[in-house]
Fold this protein.
Amino acid sequence: MYETSFEVYDFEILKMSEKNGELPPKKPLPPLFTFINAGNSGMAATCVVHPMDVIKNRIQVQKERTSIITVIKSIYKNEGILKFYSGLSAGLVRQATYTTVRLGIYNQLQEQWKLKHTTKPNFGILSLMAGTAGALGAFVGTPAEVALVRMTADGRLPKEQRRNYKNVFHAFSRIGKDEGIPALWRGSVATMGRAIVVNVSQLATYSQAKFLIASKMHLKEGVFLHFCASMLSGFLTTFNSMPFDITKTRIQNLKATGKTPGMVAMLLSIAKTEGVPALWKGFLPTYCRVGPHTVLTFIINEQIVNLYRRYIQ
């Protein structure tokens, strides 16, 4: 359907249908609406999958081997069920910044492409759009990312070492006061590198996967097609981004002691001391978060666009 920026592979058919009068021409979506819709979609999805973010970060910050079941039992027994939503305010602010920028820019780039071209963008163009949007979004969202990592991992520290941030804004204030404003962008290079991989894997691959699944398996446009494409996209996204993810998590969870290690140095250190497989530590909870988050974000985003087209535009 033309209503959403993700439906790029029916591009020529839709353009021809509009030209022949079979479909009314669609107006471009207003940039403000595109960005607000992107942020709201990401925030709504985060409210559902946030516990998996907590579990994933707990697994990644500890060097010893553990399992998802062990972490779940430990949090529930020692901290209570509400701790599965620790750091939710940071997660929501992260979506309000990172997802608003990266998905908003990606959608706008595709809207502009539709206005200027009569053919669909190829996978290389989609990847360039997704990577650019991801890097910009990650830079804007890094402070919330730092707060999120620290707040979700705080419960596993000894009581005397816990930071005890009350909310994301308290975390911003404490980090800026105790460690300096630049500390809010700690790990930004790793975060941006991860975001480029994530967005190319997620956004561009989602569009490609949708087309292949629909054409090969003859699935009609709908929630089930979105689900299948999103879960495949989520798997590739998780696998490709995990080394960057664990690297930035370790860097952002460090205390302010001396010089912050670089992304490559931290990545090599993890591989050397814990083994290469450690770069994919927490794969299952990450995938259990990324897959459903991708599904919910895209479906919510598309449904809001449909409602906007129907009742406002």
